[in-house]
Every structure is written in structure tokens, then in C-alpha cells.
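Cross-posted from the bioinformatics board.
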Amino acid sequence: IYFPTPLCVVVRVVLLYLSVFPLCHQTHSLQDFQRPAVSSKVFIQRDYSSGTICKFQTKFPSELESRLDKQQFEETIQTLNNLYAEAEKLGGSSYLEGCLACLTAYTVFLCMETHYEKVLKKIARYIRDQNEKIYAPRGLLLTDPIERGLRVVEITIFEDRNIGSAR
Amino acid sequence: MLRRACSALLPPWMRPWRWSPVWEPLMPHNDFSSSPAGRGRSPRRKWETFPGRNKFYCDGRIMMAKQTGVFYLTLVLILVTCGLFFTFDCWFLAEQLTPIIPVIGAVLFLFVIGTLLRTSFSDPGVLPRATPDEAADLERQIDVANGSTGYRPPPRTKEVVINGQTVKLKYCFTCKIFRPPRASHCSLCDNCVERFDHHCPWVGNCVGKRNYRFFYMFILSLSFLTVFIFAFVITHIILSNGSRFVVVCFFSVWSIVGLSGFHTYLISSNQTTNEDIKGSWSSKRSKDNYNPYSYGNIFTNCCAALCGPLPPRWLPSGPLYVCMLVATGFAQLDPRVEKKKKPAAFLLRSQYHTDQKEHLVSFCSFPVPFFRLKTHSHHLLIQFQILPSVLFKV
């Protein structure tokens, strides 16, 4: 299907406008992509000792010893574990949500978010805060585990020359 | 809330789309730098195929297995049977008995179709493949564990203790990850699926963590529907005293009812079909063998399986993502006609990641009305409809 040329131009302009508009408030993220070189990456694996619930190991990796306090790292991971436990919690409210969704043939999720999605947004905010306050000043970057399918927490270690540089 | 509902009415390529790594993620991340299971494809052609053998439609909102023929057969069988029932039997029964019968039949039919489509079209819980860095890190750890001799004795397993029971986690050579407990690799779809139950050709998809409840509701409602239709057709025959040709397959009633019963047992004991077939938690294996995932009572097991929180899908998608990339300067179009069958293939260079990997946009013409953006480093899979392709005729 090909539009006639003037309409094609109009369509392009409209679609570009629509595409740029939602990003207006996100232009600050452009600076984030002028990154220093990656030195290495550490992967915090899942802890399956309590079953299939989402829980990460709190063992402090040796590669981070020079950059980060053990206590801060454990606190971050423990908070993440608690947040994921809250997302996956089985209880009255999750059953109610499930039943309501089933009765409305899942159309209710066109209008509202699931409890899991709400908690995932909370986790994303928490990781962003942690990165800004603790990890970025030390030349580290926490990647949201959702981008790796909740399999690992990836911590990127950047080269030494960027420690302490203000962003 | 209203915006989201309204945007659902627009055609997908016109919907305003919000970029968020946790908003409606749809597809697993794919590691394109490693060849999928050594099928002998050259590195340049890797981008053509999704690492798993899945088909995507409507911006990636619909995800199905490669072979969908049997799914269409299921759909046709249900539609034809119900169509015949409503056409020939409902009028008679509504007059002779009560008009509620066709209403109940219609509700059951809609529920069956709804749950079938939901099962077939949802992501079953596909695990994203490991990124190259992750795979390398795992290899390093395995080397250290084996003494770095360079020879790695297969198979690679890791043992974990879950609720007192020792469970072996196997390493998936295709996805380059240690599979979580209860996950399994589907050879038909070529994906690791969480809480893998089975691959169902009748629904044209795997049944896993995210769509098991829909699958169960589908077979349960289908068994009610088949019994309902069968019973009322027999009633019609008896009441009308005529010799009518019964168009409902008697045996399908028993097989569907049997399958529902089997899955009811699985849900109440919190097992997957995979585990039951292998006898993973059977007491015949050893006296101490028990299911570590069971919550202890049938009610909690059922509630957890059917009404528990629904895990999200992984990747965002949307028709305007490439436009955004181009408009914001993250990507530049670099025309490079590569494929014989496709009208045009463009190479998108992204500055998004530090490793400066390239990703490709390929155009697929009819009968695949979308094109895919595959990235090596950012691990995104975006679906578009053919209409915005006019944007790229530079």
C-alpha cells in the first residue's frame, strides 16, 4: 500500500511528531548515553532456596570490594527481594484481583494496571534512585532485572577515571 | 486510564506509545551475537529470525508457535459445532423448554473462544536468552569450578535445595542459562519457558507460567460446553422423535473431560504435566521424594495457580519506536539492500549502547505484514505494520 506523495509527507510529519512528543520529557536521558568505557560486569544470580519466587543472592561479589560497601550492596539486594516478594505475594487482594479479572474476561486490565506492574514501576524507581545516589558516583550501574527476564541483577563496572565525576 | 482504553481502539501503528522498560514488555531479550543452536547460519543472516521459533502479529502483542495449523482446526471445530447447535437445535429447545438454554450456550461459547484466544496469543513465560556478557561470565564460573582444564564435561548442572528437596538445575546450551526450577526448553518453539507445562498444538502455543490459567479455563469451559451441547442434542432427538444426524463427536467429550480432570489434579497438587510425566515428585522414586512447590493444601494450590499474580511480559514494543530512534538521533538509516525476497533492508546504526553494535531493520512484505527491528546489544524486538514503511523510503 503506497500513499500518494503529499499525503505520505503529511503522514511522516504527523508520525514523527507523535514519536518525538512523548520523549520531550525524557531528553535528559540523552546525556546518559555518553558513557565511559565498560570495565566489566558482575551478575548477581537468583537464589532458589525458597522456591521459584524472585529472590537474588545477597553474597557480596569480590569484584565490587574496591568500589562499594558490603552493607550498602546487601541493603539494595534485600530491598529488591522484599519488593519482588510484595509483587508475588499470595493473599486476599491478589485473589480478588484475579477473580475480578476472570469475571471481566481480563478487559479490566485495559483500564488499570496489575498489582505486579505497579510494584515493578516501584522497583524501577528504586533502582533509578539507587543508581543516582549510590552507584553512579562510584562508577557502577545497576540494570533493572526485568530487562534480563528477572534472571540476574547486572552491575556494570565502568573504568576508574569516571569515579567522582559529576553528571 | 481512559487514554489507555482509547488508544486500544486506534490501529496499532497510530497509537501513542510510551517508552518504559517495564511497560507492556512483550518479547524476551534475544542474544543475537550467538548463532541459534548452531544451525549453520552465517552471522549476517542471524537477524532474520527470532532466536525462538515464534510468530508475532499486531506489534508483537500476539505470540504464537510456528505451526499453527492445528490451532485453526481447533477454532474451526468449535465454531462449526457451536454454529450447527445454535442453528438447528436452539430454536427447538428455546420453544419447547426454556430460552435460557441458548443464552447459557452463548455465554459458554464466548468464554471458550475468549480463553482459547488468550491462551494461544499470550507469551507463555519465555525466558530471555543470556546476553553475551552473561554467557561469558557463566562460562568463566564453570571453568573455575572444573579447574580450567579447557575440557568441560557435559551435562552442566547446578544443585539447589528448595524447601528441603534437592533440585537439579540444568544448563541450556541454546539459551546459555541455567534454567530456573520448573523451566524447560521447548524444542518446537526453541525457547526456555518458565513453569513449562507442555507444548499444545491444539492452541498453537506453549503452555507455561503466564498462560496456564487461561489454558485450564479453556479446557474446563470446553468440557462444559461439549457436555452441554451433547446433552441438549440428545434431548432434542428424544423430544422431537426424529432421526437426526448428530454432529457432535461423542469421543471428543470424553477426551476433553478427561483432560480437564487431569489438569484439575495437576493444579491441586501444584505440578506441571512435564513433572508428572517424568515422575519428578513421585514417591516411587524414593521415600523422601515430595513436591517442594506445593503449598500443602489443595485450596491454596488452586488459588495460586488460577488467581495468583500474573507475571509481566519482558519487552516493550510499538510502531513508533524506530521513528523515535531516528527522530532523536539514536539511530541513522543506512540503506543496504541485502535480501533477495525482501523489498528493502536497512541497517540502523545505534549510538544507544557503548559497544556500538548494529541492528537491522528488515522489511517483510506480504504475507508477513510487519517488519522487525533486531538489535544485538539492546535486545529489543519491535513489530511494525507495513504502513509506516513509507517513512523509510528515503
